[in-house]
């Protein structure tokens, strides 16, 4: 017998038109969308019917910059709760941009076979960079979190491994020799692996956003990393690189921060963003990672207790932070690695003016975004959407950054990213129109994954 569900009397978000439809129905058959149209009353007796009057339906959301390796050190009940919490907020897909292949493959299989409830996962496996590894300390807790690619032979080997382990894309990070980077990029294309670049440093990358575009890369991580590609001429001539001395790096960073956004050439910025649009490129800004004051400091129980979090969230987040604290208790923070990337002088607040400038210009240029927060907390995924709106993107652009665009970049738009016939029934239904107020994305009424209810408003 077919498993049928009818979602009745709702408005459906059209990702192409960026509008909601007139009131209609959705017929779900065996986990996929069978029809979007009025379903006759005589068909209702063979289906489970959900009255969604005055509700709004969207494709299930993507989180596009997660690090789920952190779940591997959580107690089973805490890990299970985090995965369910993503679903509760309508996040039915996750793009993981760095973690151990064995853990990510196993987690993906456990979810796909129903052993665990959670979002569908698309992963890159380890973060790849030239030695010394910036996040080497993470390998002590999550073996395989990051991997050295120093030679063409290393590049060949890692591509073979990624294909064998069912990775979807390649994540490059921080420092690379150009010849090795280009070879890795070419082999990824030949192996049908997507490719994303995180330059690692806003100030002195070895492969900048601008160079990545010239080489054909079409996906980038972290808004702050635009900076080195759009400096005024005087600063560009002085620019230092990863192998320069720490003293030179510190001096260069200090000069940029003293000048603030006057260090940015707006003409270069406009040209860079135009090139992104022309090349059909995508960008994951990760604004939330720079805005702790807009979220909750989960490491401080008193701030969690005083927050607007739910009772369950107040219970689980401190427990999760305790799990992480225990996992890293014998691991020393690598301050030298941080200095190599950012210099001595930088704090999160130092980059706020640059983030705002870049994001506003990207919104005007209509750069395609992938919404992601750089972690494993669904609360901060939603915060990322709020920040994108606050920093200049329209609600429709924000919605597409979490629906259409991730599916398109991953090459899975035949199943995900929009609500049309024959696609997976991963559906978020909210009580109020998020085009009127992006905050309405938090007013979740129902969430379906593969046509099954995974969350229902109490």
Q: What fold name stands as the CATH topology of the largest domain?
A: TIM Barrel
Helix content: 25-40%
Beta strands, count: 18
Oligomeric state of the chains?
single chain
Rg, Å, rounded? 22 Å
What's the number of helices? 16
Taking the sheet with the most strands, its summary is: 8 strands, mixed
Sequence stretches where pLDDT stays below 50 over 5 or more residues: none
Per DSSP, what share of the residues sits in E-state strands of 2 or more residues?
15-25%
CATH architecture of the largest domain: Alpha-Beta Barrel
- Backbone shape: globular
CATH fourth-tier homologous superfamily of the largest domain: Metal-dependent hydrolases
Counted up, domains total: 2
CATH class of the largest domain: Alpha Beta
Mean pLDDT: 94
State the secondary-structure class: alpha/beta
The separation of the N and C termini measures 29 Å
Secondary-structure map with pairings?
Blueprint lengths: L3 E11 L4 E2 L3 E6 L2 E5 L11 E12 L1 E6 L9 H13 L2 E6 L4 H12 L7 E4 L3 E3 L6 H6 L4 E3 L3 H13 L4 E5 L4 H13 L3 E5 L10 H7 L3 E3 L11 H6 L7 H14 L6 H13 L3 E3 L16 H5 L5 H17 L7 H8 L9 H14 L2 E2 L8 H13 L4 H7 L2 H7 L16 E4 L13 E6 L2 E5 L2
Helix pairs in contact: 4-5, 9-13, 14-15
Q: What do you see in this structure?
A:
This protein has helices at 76-88, 101-112, 136-141, 152-164, 178-190, 209-215, 233-238, 246-259, 266-278, 301-305, 311-327, 335-342, 352-365, 378-390, 395-401, 404-410; strands spanning 4-14, 19-20, 24-29, 32-36, 48-59, 61-66, 91-96, 120-123, 127-129, 146-148, 169-173, 194-198, 219-221, 282-284, 368-369, 427-430, 444-449, 452-456. By secondary structure, it is an alpha/beta fold. The protein has 2 domains: 1-59 and 418-458, Urease, subunit C, domain 1 (Roll), CATH 2.30.40; 61-416, TIM Barrel (Alpha-Beta Barrel), CATH 3.20.20.140. The strands form 5 sheets. Strands 1, 2, 3, 4, 5, 16, 17 and 18 form an 8-stranded mixed β-sheet that branches. A 3-stranded parallel β-sheet has the order 6-7-8. It is globular and about 75 Å long. It starts with a strand and ends with a strand.
